[in-house]
Fold these 2 entries.
Entry 1:
Amino acid sequence: MSLSKGVVILYSESAQLDYKRLSDICARLAEKHLDVPASIIEIEPIQRNFRTFRYPNGELEGTEWNNIGRYSAYEISPYDETILLDCDYIVQSDTLANYFGSDHDFICHNSSWDVTGNNVFRHDKYMTQNWFEMRWATVVYFKKNEHSKRIFDAWKMVYENYAYYAELFGFSKSPFRNDFAMSVAHQICNGYANTATFDYALPALSSSDSVIDYANGRWLLKYEYKQSHNVVRYTGDLHVMNKRSLLKVSDQLCE
Amino acid sequence: MDNLETYAKERFELNRQKQTLKEQQQQRLTVTYNGGLFRVDMTLLNYLYMKNANAGLFNQSTKCIIPDSYDTPVEVDCVELVQLCEQRWNEVHNDWYNEYQELKTKRKAGDVSV
């Protein structure tokens, strides 16, 4: 019997950003490139979480960040094999489709790559001063089986006891970060070995850089380097942390 | 004046663009075969070419077991796998070449479009 495959996108409403719109775009493009159905599921925010972003003009914005319930994806997903995506991850290739049908139970990224070449994520390789390796919860592939369930259960346990784990491993207990909770769960359930990760880094654009234009699978990105504004062209999947600029090209992305 | 200053500050750096092109293409160099995930590189291609040459010259089997990118041993038919790998290699490198040819003469931000 063949296993059902699909993409799941979880989101919560926010007054500041149209996460529903982002989720729709993310789902549409995932369906197009990965050739599987995508399900958008709204989750009720369990607690309000805030995060501060620095935008290209230097402006700081405290944004509501309600993606805490991602550990429930195992129960919510209607598929046997799922790719769980953040709504700001835009699929532009069939690379992720390679993982459907593979022998893996649960895979995530263990590094993020700044597509502008500024290498802003170099400090995110480790999440503590004693070199505890970080994982990214932006893109997660999992099968419904015992091992994956164990990781999701551990993820929830870390969320419920976040202050304790923050103290134990040595990271900040506020604000709550899914990446950290999942990293702890993933490491515990894999014997603290650097395994079960994607074999390429997560392509990402930081919140201080922006999308200028998009057409036919090509991104035109603006980044800051030594007080000058430069551009770079990029083709492929992209995690766009500057969601405002992503919304500005939403019509082009849907064409 | 403000516009001129802004224009002067907006640059296009070919070396960075080359690095971005390289990374973006390399993440596509993966194929799945018999439950395994293989990174298509020159080492894998060379091994497969050698196995196929030996199969033709010395009547050896084209089947073998090799580790995939995750160190999982996978049984492969070298004829089938080399076809998959070559197809992916050519797709990616053609795109890479075309993009580079288009971008190599650009020097200003305004010259670059999508």
Entry 2:
Amino acid sequence: MNIVIVLFVTLVMTIGLSGETMDKILKNTVNVDIVAQVNEGHIKFDSVQDRQKYLDSQKDLQYKSLGLNEPWYSPTRFFNTLFKVAILDLGNSHFFTTNSGSSSVRDIVIERIPNTLLLFATSTIVIIIIGLFLGPFVANKVGSIWDRMTSALAVFSTSFPTWWIGMLMIYLFAFTYHIFPARSTPLTSPSDVSYIGDLLYHMTLPFITLILVGFGSWAYIVRYFVEGVLSEDYITSKRAIGISKRKILYSHALKNAASPIVTIIALSLAGSFGGSIIVEAVFDWPGIGKLYYDAIGVSDVPLIIGLTYVFTLIFVISVFIMNLFYAFFDPRIKTA
Amino acid sequence: MTNQIVPHSDFLREFSQSKSGMAGVIILLSLTIIMLYAILAIPLESFRQWNNPNYWINYPKAAAPQWTNTGLFGPKVFEHLIMTLDDASITKIVIADNIRTEVHSYAVDFSYDSYPNDFMIPYSVKYGQIPPVLQVDIIRPDGIEFRIYYSSLPSSLAKSNENQFSSRIFSTDPIIAEYLRQLNDSFRYAQDSSKPQVMIFSDIQENKVLKGKYLIKETFYLFNDSDTVQESGLILGGRVYGLMGTDELRRDLAIGILWGAPIALFIGLSVSIGSVVIGLIYGVMAGYKGNRTDDGLMLINDIFYTLPALPLLVIMSVTLGRSIFLITGFLVIFGWAGAAKVTRSLAMKMKNLQYVEAAKLMGQSDIKIIFKHIIPQLLPLTFASIAISVPAAILGEAALSFLGLGDPSIPTWGQILHEANSASAASRGLWWWIMPPGVMIALTGLSFILIGNTLDSILNPKARKF
């Protein structure tokens, strides 16, 4: 339920902040269109005043049909816009097009989303898997060199910006050793057969970077909670029965520590996700993060609004999935 | 949990025993020293003019730090050289009535294995009706003299007696190329007169650098009594410069990095203090009042807590503005919710403590109880959470700046990295443009995390960190 409110609040804030700018842009497009129509058409005017009159009347007509005669904050306009943003009906971008040439915001965003999901879903899953193995492993050896290394890595990776590590990786693997390309946008066209392979090759460097930066703090969180569980009585008694250490660690302890761990991920997702937007920009990965970066660079407002919404949506959906996991691990909690 | 106040002396002793805490303090102290140095020693003009390319024209383009030029791992490259009027030895000669010469000589000790990238001769002359003539000669270590430039300054259009002319002779000047073409025959091998910086510093016998002392003579022929040479100079463009090198726009990165320190500390501290104080009051209100008030306040809190910060920050700076104070405000909006959550749970436990209940029974108002009895008890922990939330604020600002949405009037570490990325510094190997800003961001964050965690574990030994 909260999640829906969050989405709604974000939308309202976005519209509230950008309503005026959007109106300006819409009116501008209408004006340009009308002038172009009149210039191309064969309507003859007796005087400049007549022409202006005709233009004004056409403008008013268009404004009325688009609802632009009311301010953006009037209820009908507001909910209309809300709905339009929700279905990504945001008109055209001024600077960007899809591969097939469409400049509609929706088409552009939809074309780019799979790349973003590919990169971040795979790297997040790998990070989670590494964390789930490494965390209990070091929790069992508190104070050992492995444990200290994990903690140090966790502290370091929270204070370094992920995208800065990305720049260093490019320097190391693209400039010093020519192993991976510096620009992650594949050179082959998407219709090509070898495109998938090329895309995956270009994905390697951002993928490695995200994992390298992400897994330390993750493993640390898992370790923290597993360690807490390990001192519980039932673990001691399980040990006494003779259940193998490995099974206790990875099955019993991990399962009991699962619910706080899941909560933490759901919440820490916000920060890491923000950083990930920029990682795309650094690596020139053809996803929506890179698109966002470029749209900001040229102040393409319709696209910025659309992307803000999409980012919120992805974020909200991930939190929702996390909540499902939470309910799965802790049956006492039933989430919608 | 029990929330005892640790005695002052015990606290200091415990803190000084914590290795990580002391490491944090040491890093923070060095940052403070850097900050004071930036404020006191570097001219404020460099801060204001950071985004003005004219201010940095004398500096080299994308030059590495000077200390990399040891000559051990390859040829010793030319170190950028800026000479001004103060470095010149000036001789004035009166040739005849109304004809004087003023010779500004610059001595350059050339001991490098490679040529300069380019050179410039800036000058500024005040003159009357007849324009002065500028002539540039170079006396090489092998005794040969090169004349590379001879040209008169523009004549005054209005026939006025007060002309002021400032300009620069660049190494790409066609007059230089013309003069050098005549000198092509002095070389025993083919020389390229379109590269004067190579030709001037080349050996005549074979194609290599001619090391030794060069004397660059800039001779001004002046034809009026009141004519004065106000400025002259010599800039030899090198591949290395200064402590941290320069960027694509010729800016001295050391200055940008130094100025970044006070700004990062300002943003980090003001955002974290702002959001922790708001969160503290908000959380205590919710926790103390309980019931419906609590539910309502916490719902709002939860929403703020789960709002995706970066996309909204982007929209805010695109539509509302990019000044550093606005950005600080934006970051507070997304920062206070976490602090409120923690203080709420603490306040809920504290309101059942006996002295709070006693105060309530005495009929003190809620506001008074909150501000007099609960918040003072939470203050030590507040310091810990302020310290812990500084890195997030610094990273947030850096992220915004990196997206190109930072305050355009001041240099920040994030902005330096934004420019580095726009110029694809990483794939061009300009490591000195990337390393220092990131390391500084990380060090600043790290020092606060270390201090905060230590404070937290001393003041609040039983509380969980997460």
